[in-house]
Predict the 3D structure of the following.
Amino acid sequence: ELTQTCENFLRSIMQQLVNLLPEVPPPLQDLYVHHSSGLLRPSTKELTTCLITIISGLECPVLLLGDAFDECSRWNQLWDFVSSIARSNCQNLRFLFTSRPEQYIGDCIGSLNIPFVNLVQCEGIASDIDSFIQECVWNSFRFSRISEEAKCKIQDSLMSRVNGM
């Protein structure tokens, strides 16, 4: 089974959050009791509702970070999660998710009327990436035996395919 699922992302968030709390929050206890037979695992919707309820009950700010959302194997479930938390109006919740600039993701995020930053269009990102690649290729022990011509080809090839990432 692929690990890049919304369900696994939510389970990871829950585990990290609960590890920081002095006790297991009642909404998570209730979810556990409801599914204690083990026949059915909690749905993504149930996990999302539980997470929002827990975060809403906290007095401290919570920041959710998620990387590579374009790699999720079940985008519809992930989209349901993102739209649920965006619409939850949870005052102490902030989130930052990253993704490659896929059209369907941009369309979805745009429909939520939430802020987003397109790094591909940010000035200077290409030169930062080029500097990083140059540093790796020219100063890495792994490439020490490669000719300068080959290093230039590697650098050019990588830069032609990075597309802001």
